[in-house]
Amino acid sequence: MAYGEGPDDAALQAAWDRFCNQLRQAGLSAFKDANPANPLQRADAFRFLTQNLGQAFDLALETRDPAFPQIHRFTTPTMKLGGDLADFTYRQAWICGDHVYRLSGKRGTARWLNVTVQGPRPDRIPGTAWPSLHEPFGDIPEANLFGHQIEADADGSFEVIVGGAPREKNWLPTTPGTRKLFIREAFDAWGETPTTFTVERLGMTTVRPLPTPARMIEATDWAGDFVTGLMRDWPEHAWLTSRGVCDPACLNMFPPDKIANDGSDAKRGRMAAHMVWHLEPDEALIVEMDWHSGFWLFGMGGAMMGSMDFLYRPVSYSPARTRVDEDGVVRLVLAHQDPGLHNWLDTQGFSDGNLTYRNLMSQAGAIFRTHLVKAVDLPDHLPEGTAKVTPDERAALLLERYRAIKLRFGL
């Protein structure tokens, strides 16, 4: 059978041509001013695009029918998106308010878990003139459950009903505008285990229909908007809409008195701060924070704000994995080469990137101090007792990280 013999051939081909044109346009964004013109970061921008090209149709088509929901990981060690943080896992499932769902699984030992019902995605961020972040983001949180609110059996098994009539426990309400479940889990100590999840619609008695040409065309257009949107919006969307939390004009320091901590952040169970950094080849950056209790996380990202290579490199820290100096100060050191310090944040050779702080389930504020120094002069700017590591100890730490990350993702 040749092209033109099917009634939908022209429409399908036109949709695919549009997608290819959008993909070509998305590639041009790798050369935007926000992405440094060095070989590693130019390549990383295309890697950011190709990683998400790989999931474009999973989001647009394969998991997108709310009558036949599936849980999809949209970040992994080889797929970064949305300013993801290294010590988080992110999953979603497309749902709607017309159905009732059963979310079930077995609790792991990760320190923090949040399941959120997300509502409509407005064209503009509420209260602003800025457009919403590209699909699949921009939703408004409607309701959530934290891990400690989910009642489980003795072996950790649990069941949460999503939608339908109210229940006394393990229930999440939906609305006519509900469109997805958003599942985030955060890890502290190496060896913490992930929570397993599966979702199904109650009353699912028929098979899932195959995509029609019209459905395929719709998905192709959605995927095209997705790849152009992610290359267009990152990182500028964060600069324009994050209330100053991410400010490239405030280089190598956290913008003072700027945190993400509004009502939507509270529903997500977090507060956040953000720093944009630039390091010359011979420079290092010391980031200081007075130790405070609670569950906080630091994570490195590239120019497009995808997390750095957390499977192989020390690009994130949490309370259980951080050494605190004798004066009660947490000191993290961003450097291009291993300085032999325990709390090293590897730039992976990038000249520019970002550092994100998350504080989960706490309103305890942190005050940050930064010091840009020459890498060779680092010892002169650190307390004498700052924790150091030998090459063999670093290798052991990296292996411990590698095995723990693989455990989180079932690799």
Automatic annotation (TrEMBL):
Superkingdom in the source lineage: Bacteria
Q: Which InterPro entries match?
A: DUF1214
Question: In what residue span(s) does the DUF1214 domain sit?
Answer: 141-183
Q: Which Pfam families match?
A: DUF1214 (PF06742)
Supply the name of the protein: DUF1214 domain-containing protein
